[in-house]
Amino acid sequence: MKRLRHIAIEGPIGAGKSTLAALLAPPLGAELMLERPQDNPFLKDFYVDGPRYALQTQLFFLFQRIEQVRALAQPGMFAPLTVSDFTLDKDRIFARLTLSDEEYRLYSLIHAQVAPQVPQPDLVIWLDGPGVVLRERIARRGRPMERRIESAYLRAVADAYGEYFDAHTELPLLVVDIDRFDPLHKPADLHLLIERIAAFRGPRESLRTPPTITS
Prior knowledge:
Largest sheet: 6 strands, parallel
CATH topology: Rossmann fold
Oligomer: single chain
Distance between the termini: 37 Å
Shape: globular
């Protein structure tokens, strides 16, 4: 693990990024860096009227995430391992998905001026899975503002992540199928993931958890 300084967990809404990051950081002795969507005053309105509030929502997230990742832009010999439930590039993925062409051009100008030069994560864990699993997990956590998320938007987000990773082959990527992966309720899944992280040589690998055997 000593070769790693930043492990980022990515994936669509409902994939379990924050839960996994919180579970993974302690056994790795890592610092935890979590998104704070609850602090975005525009997010609730975005889920009601996306076109009207997309730009405000995205710019707030951009500046919030920049503030969070500034420490990663100053690598040090003795810097601790950080586990995050996002990458800075996530902001561009959602911006391209939610903004109009004119808004995205404005967003890109702002991004180019304010975004720090942050090193790419040493490992990205991509939580991927079918839409039905994502919807089940969103419903299970019961966040009122997420009840308005449409299946088409959820699928578009998942597809956007796939396109992003296809285009960025330089990223060290460990793909995890969330259909059977449940580290919150199955500690063996978390242990398996930690073993795969330690053994990761990249650049692209996948983790397939064995099916649960019931009597």
